[in-house]
Every structure is written in C-alpha cells, then in structure tokens.
Amino acid sequence: MGLGFEPERYEEQLAEKRQRLVDLLAPFNAPAPEIFESPREHFRLRAEFRLWYEGGVPHYAMFEQGDKRKAVLIDQLPIAAHRINELMNPLLEACKADPVLGRKLFQVEFLTTLSGEALVTLCYHRPIDESWDIAAQRLAEDLGIMIIGRSRGRKRVLQRDHVCEELSVAGRAWRYQQVEGGFTQPNGTVNQHMLSWALDAAGRNENDLLELYCGNGNFTLPLSTRFRKVLATELSKSSVRSALQNLDENNVTNVTLVRLSSEEVTEALNGARAFRRLEGVDLNEFNFGTVFVDPPRAGLDPATLELVSRYPRILYISCNPETLAANLETLSQTHQVTRSALFDQFPYTHHMECGVLLEKR
C-alpha cells in the first residue's frame, strides 16, 4: 500500500519506519538503527508503465495496487530518475508518429543508471521483425538510448541487453552489469549506502566469507576486499552470468561463485549430498568466520537458519523486516544483534530495507 508522493512529509514517514523497525527489533535488545535517507525525488532508476489508450491515443498509465481497471494517466513521474522523465515524452511521441513502433505497443520499461545509461524495453501484442529493428535503431540513435523489443516468444536486442552501472563504495568505484529483466536495487543512492554499511560492519578479516543469494554480485564485489576468500552462491542462471562478468570486470580473484540454492548449500556443507556444480571446489579449504545473507521476502528457511547460526558473525540484509524479526527469534538464541540499520530504498511506501549484524554470544 503506497503512502503517496508527499516530499513535505518525508521526515515524518521516515520516522514512522524507524519506530516500526525499533519495535520489531526490541525483543532482541538491538541497538538503535543507523538511518540512511533517500533523495526526496528522482531516486528510482527503474520504472515500468502500461499504455492506456483513450480515443486510440496512448498514454503512460499506472494503477493502484490490486486494481488494474482504473488507470492513472501520467506524463512525468517525480520518483523516477531524471533520465527516465527526460525520455518519457519524446519516446511516446515517436511511437505515436511511427506505426511500426507504436502499433499494439502495450508496455514500456525503463532501466537507467547513476552513471547515465538508459535501456528501454518496448513490449507488444504482435510479432515484431526486421522492419521494427530499423525503426527502433533510428529511435535509439535519436534519443541516445538502447532499445529491446519484446513480443510473445520473441526478444529483439539491438545494442545489448544490459546497462553498466558504477557505484562508489568507501572511495572505490565498482562497475556492474545490470541485465534487463534481472533484479537490481532500484534506488542507486541508497544502494551505495547499503554497500558502505555492509563493508563497515564486515570489518577486516583474515578468514573467509560465505554469501548466500549473491545475485549479480552487488555486495560480493566490495565485501571481497574484507576477507581472505569468498564462497558466493546464487540459483538464478542470469544472475550468475552477470556476477561472473562483474567479478571479471572488477578484477576480483578471491571469489568462488557456484550456482546453488541456499538449501543446496546447506546440504553440501553438511556433506549430505554431492553436487556436480561443485566439481573442482574443495569446501574444506574455506574457513568461514562470517556469513552474509540477503534473502527474498520470505526470509531464511529452517535449514538455512540452522546453517548460518553455526558461524561467529552473520550479516543479514532484509527487504522484509517482519520475516527478519521471525528469523531473529531463532538466531537470537545463539547470537546478539550488535548493529542495525534502516535503508530507505522505497520512500512514500511502507516497504523498507534493513540490516543487522549478529555476533556469537
């Protein structure tokens, strides 16, 4: 449920989130959370719009959550990046003027970066072919963007299927390949705060890091500088491909990346099952002192909870504080929360990202 775009109430809304997190962490004697604010406007690097036709004329539209019948027509979106707002009208006008681009176009998706790149995906209820390629390439050159076309069972990539982001963490620039359709943090400024906090909380270590749910290596890259070695795991094939590219792009050589789910990692570390995907990886060579998790909204399953509770330190980033609190009911039996943080990734909504550092009692 959204709170609405009310920049004048930002501090009040953030205070409400802070109190909610404090209340959730109170049973675990957590210290007061460190607060990382978002820019008030133009913070969202991704945006997706349906097209709503009135009198045959398309308009960008958004809908209230759970109600796809009543469209809210928009021509600018103040929470979206400046680059998205710059592109919205010229792109739509070009599609109106050219039937090859505009016919049966039903959705437009924008992916941009702090470093200025823009990738736009045009989605159609009809097949698209080489004639579309020519028109779309001309539009891409006119607007200085990259374009992908999607129709049922078809994806046409004109330049490339990703943007290249650059994030600054503790004085160092990290480059990330962010693939169209893959998961990336939508608020780039707050993502940099998250990475910096995680790096500081990790400290400097002479042992190794186990990372579950590593995605495209968002946290893996900077955290690799604070440990002897890293074993990073991720199930999504596309995320693994991006993570491998990002490790190579940034010359990170102390990370071993394997495509395993958290449940499979647990089985492997328990010696309960051998995996062909671990061929050539000797788990006995690792001396894990810290485990880093950034799980989906459902949190950690019981087997993964049991696994992470073995390690001296747990760094836990959560997109759902309620499931974090539920997991802490188990983890607090062996660990104490020594740091906590609130990252306001999603201003003007009830959603919030948070982090905790747990250390063995």
TrEMBL record:
Protein's UniProt keywords contain Methyltransferase: yes
Keywords from the UniProt entry: Methyltransferase, S-adenosyl-L-methionine, Transferase, tRNA processing
UniProt cross-references to SUPFAM superfamilies, sorted A to Z: S-adenosyl-L-methionine-dependent methyltransferases
Molecular function via GO: rRNA binding; tRNA (uracil(54)-C5)-methyltransferase activity, S-adenosyl methionine-dependent; tRNA binding
Residues given in the record as S-adenosyl-L-methionine binding sites: 185, 213, 218, 234, 294
Coiled coil: none
Pfam families hit by this protein: tRNA_U5-meth_tr (PF05958)
Disulfide bond among keywords: no
GO biological process: tRNA methylation
Enzyme nomenclature, EC number: 2.1.1.35
Enzyme class: transferase
Reactions performed catalytically: uridine(341) in tmRNA + S-adenosyl-L-methionine = 5-methyluridine(341) in tmRNA + S-adenosyl-L-homocysteine + H(+); uridine(54) in tRNA + S-adenosyl-L-methionine = 5-methyluridine(54) in tRNA + S-adenosyl-L-homocysteine + H(+)
Gene Ontology cellular component terms for the protein in this record: cytosol
Catalytic center residues: 319 (nucleophile), 319, 353 (proton acceptor)
PROSITE patterns tied to this protein: SAM_MT_RNA_M5U, TRMA_1, TRMA_2
Function: Dual-specificity methyltransferase that catalyzes the formation of 5-methyluridine at position 54 (m5U54) in all tRNAs, and that of position 341 (m5U341) in tmRNA (transfer-mRNA).
Family per similarity comment: Belongs to the class I-like SAM-binding methyltransferase superfamily. RNA M5U methyltransferase family. TrmA subfamily.
Name by which UniProt lists this protein: tRNA/tmRNA (uracil-C(5))-methyltransferase
